[in-house]
Amino acid sequence: MAxxxxxxxxxxxPAAGLGAAAIARTAFRALRRLNLHGRVVIxxxxxxxxxxxxxxxxxxxxxxxxxxGRDAEALDxxxxxxxxxxxxxxAAACDLGDRAAAEAFIDGVVRxxxxxxxxxxxxxxxxxxxxxxxRVEELDEAMRSNYWSAVHATLRALPHLQKQGREGRVxxxxxxxxxxxxxxxxxxxxxxxxxxxxxxxxxxxxSRGGADGPRVTxxxxxxxxxxxxxxxxxxxxxxxxxxxxxxxxxxxxxxIDARRAARRVVAAAREGRGEVKLGLSAHLLSWAHGxxxxxxxxxxxWVNALLPKPQGTTGTTRGRDLRAPAQRSVLLRPSNEAAxxxxxxxxxxxx
Length: 351
Ligand SMILES: NC(=O)c1ccc[n+]([C@@H]2O[C@H](COP(=O)([O-])OP(=O)(O)OC[C@H]3O[C@@H](n4cnc5c(N)ncnc54)[C@H](OP(=O)(O)O)[C@@H]3O)[C@@H](O)[C@H]2O)c1
What we know:
Blueprint: H1 12-31, E1 40-44, H2 49-60, E2 64-68, H3 72-84, E3 89-91, H4 99-113, E4 118-121, E5 127-128, H5 136-162, E6 169-173, H6 186-207, E7 215-221, E8 224-225, E9 233-234, H7 238-248, E10 256-257, H8 258-271, E11 275-278, H9 280-291, H10 293-306, E12 317-318, H11 333-341
Parallel strand pairs: 1-2, 1-4, 2-3, 4-6, 5-9, 6-7, 7-11, 8-10
Antiparallel strand pairs: 9-12
Helix pairs in contact: 2-8, 4-5, 5-6, 9-10
Bound molecules: NADP nicotinamide-adenine-dinucleotide phosphate.
């Protein structure tokens, strides 16, 4: 009988290789997944928005959580909500941009819980306005709340995190604004670029090249539907700035659901992943900036031409105090619902 040679498909071997690599990666991640039961997790800015959802997710995994923010009433509402879910909570109001206050907060967590396993640097502010309509005070506030808050908290918590060796975790919630300079967000971008540098440097020094220190995760979200537009500050043509930014923070395909984002951050922290990007726009813009940085800057210039013009005004207004027509738009419904769910406004103000 003549022997027949069976011809194998040329895509079979690469496909099998990719499949095996995916299985090996999943197994490797499962092996190094941190058991959060009884661990102490600090979430800065845990009073509302993504931070509150992170506190809930860590709490569901059995962690004890410590949260902070400047608004004591919002923090109290968040702590009560977490306790009703059965989460053990330490909540203390503080301005993390103030070094002494940030250090006192971290020391208070150690007194309350005796240890620190995970630090999530999530606190942040955002001001939306053309650069001409922002004052130095606003740029300074962005650096204090977005960058220095993370620096103060991390440096004070580090000796405690280092006691956990490779099981310690620092999670830095940066932003696509820390990779690509988005127009009308000068203070935000500059502070998030600084935070990106901080995050990648401590990652290199603590957890790479065989170092035995805590794992550092840099999180790069694109727009998320947290509802934080009501706590963002708007300058220049305030109602129109609110309009475009609100829309960009609400459109379902362009934005990521905040609860989903929180789950992905917790999973990445548990696995000690180095970087996680959240949402399509974070992936696309990071890729574009990596491949063609100057073209991306030019593209942002064209986007800028479509945005409201500078007004020669100074000072900003909080989204919740604006009463802009766009706030009633059906297009902003996802953000409005998220604001209600995520403690973004006092109950009597929540839309
Ligand atoms: N939402 C998005 O689309 C998006 C996209 C990319 C990245 N991010 C980043 O994700 C993080 C969370 O965003 P979010 O939308 O959830 O914002 P959010 O709802 O405005 O929450 C920010 C939290 O940080 C706290 N905070 C701000 N400055 C502080 C300070 N100096 N000291 C202590 N606490 C401070 C706020 O509380 P107080 O105001 O009471 O102090 C609040 O609890 C931020 O770092 C943000 O930049 C958000």
